[in-house]
Design goal:
This protein has 139 residues and is mainly alpha-helical. The chain has 2 domains: 76 residues, no CATH class; 56 residues, no CATH class. Helices cover 61% and strands 4% of the residues. A two-stranded antiparallel sheet has the order 1-2. Helix 1 crosses helix 2 and helix 2 runs antiparallel to helix 3. The radius of gyration is 23 Å and the shape is elongated. The chain starts with a helix and ends in an 18-residue tail after the last strand.
């Protein structure tokens, strides 16, 4: 990273620390703008399809022209479904690493984050968090 990026990150971190509510609202607004853009793209592709169907006679060329926007719509909508694979590793129990779990609990509390359900250890020299909703049971 160059100095401009580091300076920008530092300013955003200090802004987030001073105004967490406003920072979260800005992030939510940016995410919403991304989804609105995708909605706009799908709407425009549907409009192109409607124009083609409305003004063209139904023949082989028309069917070919309709499939192009249909395929693009499918690609855009399919990009919204992302499957996060289950991470690999050996699951640690609280009794095996009490210090690590205390640190995880402390960080979770400081960040007001969601509960950590499992801690996995792997051969990768990296730390990460995966939020996987597919394995949760709703009761």
């Amino acid at each position: 990273m160059d100095q401009k990026q580091v300076a920008r990150i530092c300013s955003l971190e200090s802004f987030a620390a001073k105004n967490p509510g406003i920072y979260r609202a800005r992030v939510a607004l940016l995410a919403s703008l991304g989804y609105l853009y995708l909605l706009f793209v799908v709407t425009m592709l549907l409009a192109v399809m409607a124009i083609i169907i409305f003004y063209a006679r139904l023949n082989f060329a028309t069917v070919k022209l309709v499939w192009i926007p249909l395929a693009l719509i499918w690609i855009v909508l399919r990009s919204l479904w992302i499957a996060v694979p289950e991470p690999d590793g050996k699951e640690l129990q609280r009794e095996q690493a009490p210090g690590l779990f205390e640190l995880v609990d402390e960080i979770t509390h400081k960040l007001s984050g969601p509960t950590v359900h499992r801690v996995l250890v792997s051969g990768d020299f990296n730390a990460g968090i995966v939020q996987n909703w597919s394995n949760r049971l709703v009761t």
